[in-house]
Amino acid sequence: MDRFVRNFIIASIIYLGISSLLGIAMLHQTRLLSLKFVHSHLNMLGWVSMMIYGVGYHILPKFAGKMIKYPKMGEIQFWASNISLIGMLIFYAMNVATPSASYAMITTFFGVVQVFSIGLFFYNMLATLLPASPPPQR
Ligand code: HEM
Ligand code: HEM
Fold first, then answer.
1. Could you report the per-residue pLDDT of 5-28, keeping only the tens digit for each?
2. Does 13 fall in a domain?
3. How close is the Cα of 45 to the center of ligand 2, in Å?
4. Over the chain, what is the mean pLDDT?
5. What is the pTM of this model?
6. Residue with CA at minimum distance from ligand 2 atom 16
7. 93 Cα: distance to centroid of ligand 1 (angstroms)
8. Counting atoms of ligand 1 from 1, which one is nearest the CA of 21?
9. Which residues of 80-115 are buried (b: 16+ CB within 10 A; e: fewer)?
10. What range does the domain containing 124 cover?
11. C-alpha R_g of the chain
12. pLDDT tens for residues 28-48?
């Protein structure tokens, strides 16, 4: 298993743990519901998407009898998606606590990096899966 594949799966499980704790805190303290976006995106971009990236990078090329075309791009995607997710959620929460135009701008910037990382997955998977396989050698 490539290192970034393993890292995606480990990160995804960590996000599930953190988001569940935040979920419980939101149940307990309704004023924390202002952080619902942090909880939902720790789950949807952290737990769910990163598990899909990890399992997808590992399994989908194998189904097609291929290797990941650009493993280095997968490594870059791992860092881009994690740094941007953490950055986006920290600055979102800071903007909730102390609203400020610069926090909002930095949140958006990290959101754009997150979209970039989604683009890397999109490109790498299609570049891996779409090309026709060579015919079997006799
Ligand atoms: C211990 C586990 C969890 C707890 C205690 C919890 C708790 C909560 C709470 C209190 C809310 C706010 C509801 C409201 O607006 O009144 C919420 C929203 C949400 N949760 Fe969780 N949650 C948990 C796990 C999960 C998981 C595993 C996922 C996804 C895989 C998830 C996805 C969401 C989403 C998408 C929302 C936003 C829904 C909306 O806007 O209506 N949660 N959760
Ligand atoms: C670059 C990635 C993403 C960005 C920048 C983003 C941004 C946002 C924003 C601004 C909201 C509205 C929050 C509010 O009403 O206060 C939202 C809501 C939501 N998004 Fe995303 N999103 C992204 C990816 C995703 C993905 C991949 C999923 C699901 C797999 C998802 C699921 C949801 C859900 C369920 C809600 C409603 C719950 C909530 O209000 O927190 N998002 N998103």
1. 999 999 999 999 999 999 999 999
2. yes
3. 9
4. 96
5. 0.95
6. 37
7. 17
8. 1
9. bbbebbebbbebbebbeeeeeeebeebbeebbebbe
10. 3-129
11. 18
12. 999 999 999 999 999 999 999
